[in-house]
């Protein structure tokens, strides 16, 4: 059935293509190759490749299609999947979108636990926004204020053969965004079916348990003089287990010039730091990030080096994340991300180097050093080359 | 005696062709304020659409950014079209700057401290690119003289930011084409008088209505060695009819 749904969606896009001027369609995207070495008692090597392709359709005043698909090189085999595929109908006071789409409720934070798609910035890289299979209605309220309503079908991406069961569970989201001069304020509410990974006595994954997660919160972003500040407060509730918790997040960003003269020239240094805490420690970011809530999460491809420490450290209750980055020249950034968690006293240090090599090529090298109070330690280095076209 | 007369004539002629004479004559013709009003008439974009290319060079390396932008008064919308940044948009609404991320289809408010940073890693800051007020609203001017730049006669005007205005640079030295009233060169200074950047116009073009506008500009950050950014305007439509809703947060959502 999954194949049938895909075929139906491809046909939908094909209809759009056939009714569009073929000469105006462009293709673009990127091809990435990553390799990594991880040391965790023994040395592991890792390699992954990924291609992302997007068709750029001519602008239309009423209907906007978007088609992004990707190829992943996993264990020597190529897999293809849709990242985004939707049709958007624009009206004077908003739009309606149907299909697999990005739903991002960002406000500048590196870790956004109130995002409908639970986007988490990939340590100094772009935010990973999972595709949401669903319907979204965006209503403009004037002056940049708007209301979004979402219904998602997370089961569409599952392997189940039964369409009815795929459409059985629905997620709902609502966001009221109220930007103004010098600030951005949002109220977010979401209700989503989730699958919780059960673990047997031996600590192995055994089965999934269904539940529903409710998240309600407020996010803000505001300048205080030259200092950028942002934050969020949220309430999380898991329906079946009756677990709940409050989350508090505070963040700042600031940039200054080292060298140069009186704020000009020299080398720009950008600092972003944020702290969050679940007050009762019933939830954590790692648990939330691992949830399959949108239907399109499988698109995330990461090396083992990337994945290992990230989810360990997100498992704690308090988390301080600092990103410090400077430009070595117009083409090269050198930065370091530090993450510190208090419950198990874990820390991850991720120095990274990104360089625009010209001709659409970008080089990225990062290394990771992880340690905790138990004396566990691992480290790794990864390098990636991306070609944009 | 003859030598004294010749020497006096020489001094007098040098004075006549120098700034002293020029100042007297120019002051009688146009004041610095009037010159800058003519420049604003020419270069201020009331409502325009532009397609441009930005070539960033630093120590032998080069990268190219392409974009188009809509400007209406103090608001503007720019979208990048080169592969690396395709779909990235900047929206300036008054003093607020928003950035749109195409992958996530979401926009985030950019903190005020970023406005002096190089836009997309170039020698142009966000302030340089998005400066949208008339220079006559931001600065007081003084006519300093005249010089020849690339074979064109220019007025040389110094500009000092008005105390009540939040100008990008405290002080500027501006070379203005005497015939076309278009800026051919600018030097930007800090409050302490230090030279920060130099902008040179490499090409100007006449548009309908005998309006001249710079179409190739090189910005050089003097505090960064060996770097420069060239902005080439490929297409420019003055008085472009931009719908009210085009430059708005709604457009990006």
Secondary-structure map with pairings?
The complex is a heterodimer of chains A (389) and B (253).
Chain A lengths: L1 H17 L7 E15 L1 E15 L6 E12 L2 E15 L2 E9 L17 E2 L5 E2 L2 E12 L2 E8 L10 H6 L2 E10 L2 E17 L5 E20 L2 E12 L4 E16 L8 E12 L6 H5 L5 E2 L7 H10 L4 E12 L2 E10 L4 E13 L2 E11 L5 E12 L1
Antiparallel strand pairs in A: 1-2, 1-21, 2-3, 3-4, 4-5, 5-8, 6-7, 8-9, 8-16, 9-10, 10-11, 11-12, 12-13, 13-14, 14-15, 15-17, 17-18, 18-19, 19-20, 20-21
Chain B lengths: L1 H16 L1 H11 L2 H12 L3 E12 L2 E12 L2 E6 L8 E5 L2 E6 L4 E5 L15 H5 L4 H4 E11 L2 E10 L9 E7 L5 E7 L5 E13 L3 E11 L5 E11 L16
Antiparallel strand pairs in B: 1-2, 1-13, 2-3, 3-4, 4-5, 5-6, 7-8, 8-9, 9-10, 10-11, 11-12, 12-13
Q: Your description of this structure?
A:
The complex is a heterodimer of chains A (389) and B (253). Chain A has 389 residues and is mainly beta. Chain A has one domain: Beta Barrel (Porin). In chain A, the strands form two sheets. Chain A has an 18-stranded antiparallel beta barrel. Chain A has a two-stranded antiparallel sheet with strand order 6-7. Chain B has 253 residues and is of the alpha+beta class. In chain B, strands 6-5-4-3-2-1-13-12-11-10-9-8-7 form a 13-stranded antiparallel beta sheet. In chain B, a hairpin with a 2-residue loop joins strand 4 and strand 5. The chains are: A mainly beta (389), B alpha+beta (253). At the A-B interface, strand 14 of A face strand 2 and strand 6 of B.
Keywords, separated by commas or semicolons:
heterodimer, A: Porin, 18-stranded antiparallel beta barrel, two-stranded antiparallel sheet, 4 helices, 21 strands, globular, B: 253 residues, alpha+beta, outer membrane lipoprotein receptor (LolB), chain A, 2 domains
CATH class of the largest domain in chain B: Mainly Beta
Query: What is the makeup of the main sheet of chain B?
Result: 13 strands, antiparallel
Mean pLDDT metric of chain B: 84
- What would you give as the CATH superfamily of the largest domain in chain B? Lipoprotein localisation LolA/LolB/LppX
Largest interface between protein chains, with number of residues from each side: A-B, 51 and 44 residues
- Please report the distance between the alpha carbons of the first and last residues of chain A: 34 Å
How do the strands of the widest beta sheet of chain B line up side by side? 6-5-4-3-2-1-13-12-11-10-9-8-7
CATH architecture identity of chain A: Beta Barrel
Range of helix content of chain B:
10-25%
Structural class of chain B: alpha+beta
How many E strands of chain A? 21
Work out the helix count of chain A: 4
Overall number of domains of chain B: 2
Decide which structural class fits the backbone of chain A. mainly beta
Helix-strand topology string of chain A: HEEEEEEEEEHEEEEEEHEHEEEEE
Cα shape of chain B: globular
Quaternary form = heterodimer
In the residues of chain A, how many domains can be counted? 1
Question: Over all CA atoms, what is the radius of gyration of chain A?
Answer: 22 Å
Quick check: average pLDDT of chain A?
82
The fraction of residues in strands of chain A falls at: over 45%
């Amino acid at each position: 059935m999954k194949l049938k749904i895909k075929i139906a969606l491809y046909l939908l896009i094909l209809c759009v293509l056939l009714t569009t001027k073929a000469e105006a369609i462009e293709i673009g995207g990127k091809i990435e190759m990553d390799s990594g070495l991880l040391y965790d008692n023994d040395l592991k090597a890792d390699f992954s490749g990924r291609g992302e392709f997007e068709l750029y359709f001519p602008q239309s005043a009423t209907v906007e299609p978007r088609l992004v698909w990707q190829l992943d090189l996993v264990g020597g085999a190529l897999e293809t999947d849709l990242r985004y595929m939707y049709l958007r109908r624009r009206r004077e006071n908003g739009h309606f979108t149907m299909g697999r789409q990005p739903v991002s409720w960002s406000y500048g934070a590196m870790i956004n636990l109130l995002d409908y798609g639970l986007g988490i910035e990939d340590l100094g890289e772009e935010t990973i926004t999972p595709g949401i299979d669903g319907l979204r209605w965006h209503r403009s309220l004037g002056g940049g204020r708007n209301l979004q309503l979402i219904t998602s079908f997370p089961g569409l991406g599952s392997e189940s053969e039964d369409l009815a069961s795929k459409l059985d569970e629905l997620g709902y989201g609502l966001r009221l965004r109220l930007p103004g001069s010098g600030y951005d304020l949002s109220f977010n509410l979401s209700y989503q079916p989730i699958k919780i990974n059960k673990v047997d006595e031996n600590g192995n994954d055994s089965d999934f348990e269904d539940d529903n997660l409710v998240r309600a919160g407020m996010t803000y972003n505001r300048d205080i003089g030259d200092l950028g500040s942002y934050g969020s407060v949220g309430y999380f509730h898991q329906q079946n287990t009756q677990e709940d918790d409050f989350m508090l997040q505070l963040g700042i960003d600031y940039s200054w010039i080292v060298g140069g003269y009186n704020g000009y020239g020299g080398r720009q240094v950008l600092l972003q730091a944020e702290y969050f805490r679940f007050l009762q420690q019933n939830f954590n970011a790692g648990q939330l990030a691992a949830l399959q809530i949108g239907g399109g999460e499988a698109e995330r491809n990461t090396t083992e080096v990337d994945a290992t420490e990230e989810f360990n450290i997100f498992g704690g209750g308090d988390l301080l994340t600092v990103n410090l980055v400077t430009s070595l020249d117009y083409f090269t950034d050198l930065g370091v991300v530090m993450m510190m968690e208090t419950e198990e006293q874990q820390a991850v240090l991720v120095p990274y180097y990104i360089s625009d090599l010209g001709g659409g090529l970008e080089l990225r090298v990062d290394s990771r050093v992880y340690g905790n109070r138990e004396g566990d330690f691992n480290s790794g280095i990864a390098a990636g080359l991306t070609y944009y076209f | 005696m003859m030598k004294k007369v010749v020497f006096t004539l020489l001094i007098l002629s040098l004075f006549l062709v120098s700034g002293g004479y020029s100042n007297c004559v120019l002051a009688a013709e146009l004041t610095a304020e009037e010159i800058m009003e003519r420049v604003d008439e020419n270069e201020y974009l009331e409502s325009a659409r532009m397609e441009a290319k930005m070539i960033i060079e630093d120590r032998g390396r080069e990268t190219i950014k392409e974009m188009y932008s809509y400007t209406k008064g103090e608001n503007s919308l720019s979208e990048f079209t080169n592969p690396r940044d395709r779909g990235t948009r900047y929206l300036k609404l008054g003093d607020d700057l928003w950035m749109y991320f195409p992958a996530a289809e979401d926009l985030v408010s950019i903190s005020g401290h970023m406005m002096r940073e190089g836009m997309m890693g170039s020698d142009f800051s966000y302030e340089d690119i998005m400066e949208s007020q008339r220079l006559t609203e931001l600065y007081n001017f003084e006519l300093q003289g005249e010089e020849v730049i690339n074979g064109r006669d220019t007025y040389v005007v110094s500009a000092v930011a008005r105390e009540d205005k939040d100008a990008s640079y405290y002080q500027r030295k501006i070379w203005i084409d005497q015939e076309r009233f278009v800026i051919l060169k600018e030097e930007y200074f800090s409050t302490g008088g230090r030279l920060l950047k130099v902008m040179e116009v490499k090409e100007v073009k006449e548009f309908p209505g005998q309006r001249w506008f710079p179409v190739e500009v090189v910005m050089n950050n003097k505090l960064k060695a060996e770097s420069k950014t060239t902005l080439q305007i490929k297409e420019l439509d003055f008085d472009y009819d931009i719908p009210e809703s085009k430059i708005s947060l709604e457009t990006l959502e």
